[in-house]
Amino acid sequence: MATSSISPGHGGLPQFDHYLDQFPRYLRGQLGLSESTERVYLADLRSFRQFLSIEGLSLTDMDRQTLRGYLAWLATEGRGEAGGFARVSVARKLTVLRAFYKYLVQEGLFRSTPVPSGRSFKLKVNKNLPQFLGQREVTRLMDAPDESSEIGLRDKAILETLYACGVRLAEIHGMNVNDINFPQREILVRGKGSKERLVLFGQHTEDALRLYIGEARPKLAGLPTPALFLNRYGERLSRRSFEKLVRKYSALAGTRDDVHPHTLRHTFATHMLEGGADLRVIQELLGHSSPTTTQVYTHVTKQEALMAYLSHHPRADEPAGHEKSDAQGQEEPLTARKDA
């Protein structure tokens, strides 16, 4: 059993708050997590703080029994009057708790973590299949914005980019104008853990982006800003606004009600897979990585990803600067480039 290296008398919520305040530096500096992931971690730990307060416990009281009590509380009454959290949320909070206690070991509060490992303490989660749109639904969605206005041109470019590139909400929110390489039809995106990768786009998306950048964005921009997508005040468009506009145009297009930017990411992957693209290429384009699959990804080349994209994405065609005959040429590893 893990033992604490300090006296229990120094525990309680003040001790918890002290370490929680320092935790973001560990998340950014050592784990390399993004700002959005950091917010999720801190929010999940507030649930644990609430549980400690209710039960009159401190950080040093953690053991298998305490952990079981915390998970049971999360599943039944963690959300107050709304009841308990979904099983997938409980599993995520357990992952966050393990990371927090690893940090406490590093800080010297424990000699080893008191939280049981995933091998000895498993929480099974039934994963729901991701929701996605059909190709006809996508076509209606892309045609929904009114392209006679600056906002409509912007929203058209956003929808095209979400579907053509399969990017996350945080990734499109953080895009800058200089991240776009029009001659190669590539966009540099910054994903989870500040990892960079290149995503590809075709003619439809190029047309939408050029119209927005050339005609609409100058009218929206106030003070100079690198941000690609701007609101009517010339500031970087908020994440909430991305979510709202996707729901808005989904309603106008007559698709389902629960469409989210991530739905278009799932749709991108599904349509690529349905078209016959190699799964490892799709994973590379999506920016997925894990210890068991990273070695496979290293064999995916930039040219292979390009040719698979052109062959299998419904709204892609031959990008400028690329010839199909290049597929027989020398391969280049698929790695993120730095902006010039």
Describe the model.
- It is a single chain.
- Residues 1-9, 290-301 and 323-340 have low confidence and may be disordered.
- This protein has helices spanning 13-29, 35-55, 64-77, 87-106, 135-142, 150-165, 169-173, 203-220, 239-253, 261-274, 279-286, 294-297, 302-312; strands at 180-181, 186-190, 196-200.
- By secondary structure, the protein is mainly alpha-helical.
- It folds into 2 domains: 8-106, DNA polymerase, domain 1; 136-328, Orthogonal Bundle (hpI Integrase, Chain A), CATH 1.10.443.
- The chain contains 13 helices and 3 strands, in the order αααααααβββαααααα.
- It is elongated and about 60 Å long.
List keywords for this structure.
hpI Integrase, Chain A, 2 domains, 4% strand, mainly alpha, disordered N terminus, three-stranded antiparallel beta sheet, disordered C terminus, 340 residues, elongated, DNA polymerase, domain 1
Task: Describe, in short, the structure shown.
By secondary structure, the protein is mainly α. Helix content is 50%, strand content 4%. The protein folds into 2 domains: 8-106, DNA polymerase, domain 1 (Orthogonal Bundle), CATH 1.10.150; 136-328, Intergrase catalytic core (hpI Integrase, Chain A, Orthogonal Bundle).
